[in-house]
Hints:
The chain is mainly α and 128 residues long. It has helices spanning 22-29, 34-48, 55-67, 74-84, 100-123. It is built from 5 helices and no strands.
Amino acid sequence: MTVAVDGPAPGQPQLLRSADTPLGRARVARGWSQDKAVRALVLLADAWGWQVASEASLKVQLSRWEHGGSRPNETYRVLLCSLYRATPNELGFDRAPQSTKGLRDRISDLEALVENLTAALLAQGVQA
């Protein structure tokens, strides 16, 4: 079976991507781009009579929230939970940010792991 196409082939639709976080996965699971999610946030806030940032600002914020660069405040957490029909825990909002000490401990653990792996590779004659 062959298919004939008149005219140039259309461009492939852009694949949806997000950070591998609960918030990012929730958006992609609905098939929404960041633009669509931002528009939905603005419309929901308007329907509730809530004031939110501009769409341009929200798009930057949504990216930061999805990548863990910052956490949404209570207003946006409520909006996002309602928008995605999810609990705060499902969107990763109940997870407390790690302390500086906790991060230092993780870095130390990772450094030790790298040193151990490097030593093991050298012992097997593999150049690191």
